[in-house]
Amino acid sequence: MRSGTGGVTAVIAGIGAVTADRLVKNDELARRLDVTPDWIRVRTGIEQRYVLAPGEATSDLAVRAGRRALAAAGDPDVDFVILATCTPDHTFPSTAPSVATRLGLGTVTAFDLNAACSGFVYGLSAGTGLIASGAFRSGLVIGADAISTIVDHDDPVTAPIFGDGAGAVVLRAGSPDEPGGLLAQTTGSDGSLLDTLITPSGGSRQRAAGVAPDPVSSYLRMEGRLVFRHAVQRMAQAARDVVARTGWTVDDVDLLVAHQANERILTATAGEVGLPPEKAFSNVDRVANTSAASIPLALVDALESGVLRPGAKVVLAGFGGGATWGATTLVWPDIAVGTEPAA
């Protein structure tokens, strides 16, 4: 899917993000995996991650991030909720309606979107389409995942990489000429890469085959080398595409906020785009790979650290299982980061 920069677009009016509460540092994980903390850090660039406590679920993170984004935007009425997640609370029904209800949004349109780690970029594209149609004036896009619930915690390949979190933005109808307006957008997929990132059991294919799920097939499986190569290629190409269609050059870009998969992927993607490493924001060392939450979490960290300022020309890019990918451009607006309202 490609969209241009004319007519009505979605404008980011508020942002908020959260991580799960339980901090897991490399030394704790290393003891269980029988590796060293440095082995994890060198391979991934990750020092720590946050994971859900027992009894918590993806929706709990989504609600907290949604509250923060709504507060940042002045608690507006919204017409829809898009929840980008690959770890919904239940296989059926979708999680978004319960999130909308818990946020006090009433009977708004609400649905889940599963594009794995590129889910937030897909959600922005879908939200822009709803607003550009004229049928909706505003909405809430949330990226939330609890990948710790589908990872084998004794697997040294996947266990160190992932953390749990959520990030959200409020979108409103506006003009591409104003700060915060989502400009050029692109999304794509390649189903031939299905097996590079997959949880084999739990869906209709396994159940219809009458095969009882075994513990191994219920965990996330990843072909690391293939994921690395395609993530870099697809995110870089998508980023270059939207930069060109926005009418910018690569030199115009102030900040690339890509999916925080691992440090090597972030560095390689920036290089493929033609950007110096310092223009590729990274917080993967502190929060790990949070899937659909990674881009909004990175945006909030960039804002709070002063790296991202109003007027900056920003590129967002994601790659995830499916395989899916996408990118968009915007000039960053003068908005505050939302905090969680007092109970």
Automatic annotation (TrEMBL):
<dbReference type="InterPro" id="IPR004655">
    <property type="entry name" value="FabH"/>
</dbReference>
<keyword id="KW-0275">Fatty acid biosynthesis</keyword>
<keyword id="KW-0444">Lipid biosynthesis</keyword>
<feature type="domain" description="Beta-ketoacyl-[acyl-carrier-protein] synthase III C-terminal">
    <location>
        <begin position="244"/>
        <end position="332"/>
    </location>
</feature>
<feature type="active site">
    <location>
        <position position="289"/>
    </location>
</feature>
<keyword id="KW-0276">Fatty acid metabolism</keyword>
<keyword id="KW-0443">Lipid metabolism</keyword>
<keyword id="KW-0012">Acyltransferase</keyword>
<comment type="similarity">
    <text>Belongs to the thiolase-like superfamily. FabH family.</text>
</comment>
<dbReference type="InterPro" id="IPR013747">
    <property type="entry name" value="ACP_syn_III_C"/>
</dbReference>
<dbReference type="GO" id="GO:0005737">
    <property type="term" value="C:cytoplasm"/>
</dbReference>
<dbReference type="Pfam" id="PF08541">
    <property type="entry name" value="ACP_syn_III_C"/>
</dbReference>
<dbReference type="Pfam" id="PF08545">
    <property type="entry name" value="ACP_syn_III"/>
</dbReference>
<dbReference type="InterPro" id="IPR016039">
    <property type="entry name" value="Thiolase-like"/>
</dbReference>
<comment type="function">
    <text>Catalyzes the condensation reaction of fatty acid synthesis by the addition to an acyl acceptor of two carbons from malonyl-ACP. Catalyzes the first condensation reaction which initiates fatty acid synthesis and may therefore play a role in governing the total rate of fatty acid production. Possesses both acetoacetyl-ACP synthase and acetyl transacylase activities. Its substrate specificity determines the biosynthesis of branched-chain and/or straight-chain of fatty acids.</text>
</comment>
<keyword id="KW-0808">Transferase</keyword>
<dbReference type="GO" id="GO:0033818">
    <property type="term" value="F:beta-ketoacyl-acyl-carrier-protein synthase III activity"/>
</dbReference>
<keyword id="KW-0511">Multifunctional enzyme</keyword>
<keyword id="KW-0963">Cytoplasm</keyword>
<comment type="subunit">
    <text>Homodimer.</text>
</comment>
<feature type="active site">
    <location>
        <position position="117"/>
    </location>
</feature>
<dbReference type="GO" id="GO:0044550">
    <property type="term" value="P:secondary metabolite biosynthetic process"/>
</dbReference>
<dbReference type="GO" id="GO:0004315">
    <property type="term" value="F:3-oxoacyl-[acyl-carrier-protein] synthase activity"/>
</dbReference>
<protein>
    <recommendedName>
        <fullName>Beta-ketoacyl-[acyl-carrier-protein] synthase III</fullName>
        <ecNumber>2.3.1.180</ecNumber>
    </recommendedName>
</protein>
<comment type="pathway">
    <text>Lipid metabolism; fatty acid biosynthesis.</text>
</comment>
<feature type="active site">
    <location>
        <position position="259"/>
    </location>
</feature>
<feature type="domain" description="Beta-ketoacyl-[acyl-carrier-protein] synthase III N-terminal">
    <location>
        <begin position="111"/>
        <end position="191"/>
    </location>
</feature>
<dbReference type="InterPro" id="IPR013751">
    <property type="entry name" value="ACP_syn_III_N"/>
</dbReference>
<dbReference type="GO" id="GO:0006633">
    <property type="term" value="P:fatty acid biosynthetic process"/>
</dbReference>
<feature type="region of interest" description="ACP-binding">
    <location>
        <begin position="260"/>
        <end position="264"/>
    </location>
</feature>
